[in-house]
């Protein structure tokens, strides 16, 4: 009996840790909080914070090789264990900057949803999905880097405001592909 209870406790603990910290999707009405950043800060850098975000695409290909569009799930994700901050270095603009990184990933998730929705797949769907995904992912990474360079990692407030406006406009432009 003790073994069963110990095993159940271990399973419950592992599931709760994994569920809480693996990733969560972007949501229109949910902004990042510092409590979402649970990774260990990188002491080798002078940066005050880092939000780790990305896009994922889960899909089904039928027996004939065609993508089943209605089973396609594309999300922008935030990875708490890979995201961190240094409490003594953050200011009121830092969290907003990190949120914009997450928003940039959502813009690209919407771009991917649009591209998938508009593509006529053949029996070579897996190759076609990869050919659609790769340039969008390159664009997402390039935009993240450009955002950091132009805002000087949130230090240039004027550039930061321009970027926040730009990303809000892109979210609006691709609003049809929000989910």
Entry summary:
The protein has helices at residues 2-21, 94-118, 125-151, 157-173; strands at residues 24-25, 49-50, 53-58, 73-78, 84-85. It is mostly helical.
Descriptors:
single chain; mainly alpha; two-stranded antiparallel ribbon; 4 helices; 5 strands; elongated
Detailed description of the structure:
The relative contact order is 0.14. α2 runs antiparallel to α3 (125-151). The protein is 50% helix and 10% strand. It has helices spanning 2-21, 94-118, 125-151, 157-173, and strands at 24-25, 49-50, 53-58, 73-78, 84-85. The chain is elongated, with a radius of gyration of 19 Å. It has 179 residues and is mainly α. The strands form two sheets. The protein has a three-stranded antiparallel β-sheet with strand order 1-4-3. The chain has a two-stranded antiparallel sheet with strand order 2-5. The chain is built from four helices and five strands. The longest helix has 27 residues, at 125-151.
Task: Give the overall shape.
Answer: elongated
The CA-CA distance between the termini, in Å, is 46 Å
Mean pLDDT level: 90
Strand order of the largest sheet: 1-4-3
Q: SSE layout and pairings?
A:
Blueprint: H1 2-21, E1 24-25, E2 49-50, E3 53-58, E4 73-78, E5 84-85, H2 94-118, H3 125-151, H4 157-173
Antiparallel strand pairs: 1-4, 2-5, 3-4
Helix pairs in contact: 2-3, 2-4
């Amino acid at each position: 009996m003790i073994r069963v209870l110990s095993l159940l406790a271990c399973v419950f603990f592992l599931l709760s840790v994994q569920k809480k910290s693996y990733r969560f999707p972007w949501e229109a009405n949910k902004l990042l909080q510092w409590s979402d950043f649970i990774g260990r800060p990188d002491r080798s850098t002078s940066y005050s914070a880092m939000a780790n975000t990305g896009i994922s695409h889960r899909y089904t290909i039928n027996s004939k090789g065609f993508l089943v569009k209605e089973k396609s799930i594309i999300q922008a994700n935030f990875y708490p264990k890979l995201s961190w901050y240094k409490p003594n270095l953050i200011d009121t603009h830092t969290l907003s900057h990190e949120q914009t990184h997450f928003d940039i990933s959502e813009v690209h998730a919407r771009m991917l949803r649009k591209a998938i929705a508009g593509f006529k797949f053949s029996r070579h769907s897996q190759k076609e999905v990869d050919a659609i995904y790769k340039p969008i992912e390159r664009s997402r990474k390039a935009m993240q880097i450009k955002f950091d360079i132009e805002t000087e990692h949130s230090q240039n407030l004027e550039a930061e405001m321009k970027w926040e406006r730009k990303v809000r406009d892109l979210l609006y432009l691709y609003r049809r592909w929000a989910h």
